[in-house]
Amino acid sequence: MQVIRHAPDGCPALVLNADFRPLSYFPLSLWSWQDTLKAVFLDRVDVVAQYDTVVRSSNFQMRLPSVVSLKKYVNHSRAPAFTRFNVFLRDGFTCQYCGAGERDALTFDHVTPRSKGGRTTWENIVAACAACNLKKGGRMPAQAKMFPAKKPVRPSMFELNERGRAFPPNYLHQSWQDFLYWDSVLEP
Q1: For 139-188, how does the pLDDT look when each residue is reduced to its tens digit (9 = 90+)?
Q2: 117 Rama class: left (phi>0) / alpha (psi -120 to 50) / beta
């Protein structure tokens, strides 16, 4: 993890909810500088911190925002979308059968195979490396003697955000540090 003092390419803005917590940690809630300026001019956000980078027009100039907070609170109580990424995030980007952290080689595995009536739901899908998925095949866990490390469940948005905190991005701008809570990352 690298903490930088200059504006990263593109000058993204960290987007905070109205309570000054990031909308999401993984992926980190970032907007492009263009989307951020649009939100500023539409009065949807408050600028909390700025880059040294200035944008100019013929009759206006402004430092680009590096941190903004929404004026209206976005409630995270809704259920997260069932996506491949969110399943992998729930499972910590590790195979639920062997524990391998082959992030790029993970697949979906139906605990109860589709051929046996298993559905594609939070409660029946786990992250599995390709080797374990192939080994288990279309068999039930007891037949294959392969059981997921954790019972698959539907996570809340809060749980996914907490899980995402374990995967900080490749860089953090210095102005974001007061709003992000990765203990090992925030050391100067």
Answers
A1: 999 999 999 999 999 999 888 888 887 776 767 788 888 887 654 443 43
A2: left
Amino acid 153 reads: V
In the chain, what are the helix, strand and coil shares in percent, each to the nearest 5?
Answer: 25, 25, 50
Q: What is the DSSP letter of 143?
A: H
- pTM value is 0.67
Q: How many whole angstroms separate alpha carbon 90 and alpha carbon 99?
A: 14
Q: Three-state secondary structure along the chain? A: CEEECCCCCCCCEEEECCCCCECCECCECEECHHHHHHHHHCCCEEEEEEEEEEEECCCCEEEEEEEEEECCCCCCCCCCCCCHHHHHHHCCCCCCCCCCCCHHHEEEEECCCHHHCCCCCCCCEEEEEHHHHHHHCCCCHHHHCCCCCCCCCCCCHHHHHHHHCCCCCCEEEHHHHHHCCCCCCCCC
Which position has the token pair 């974001």? 176
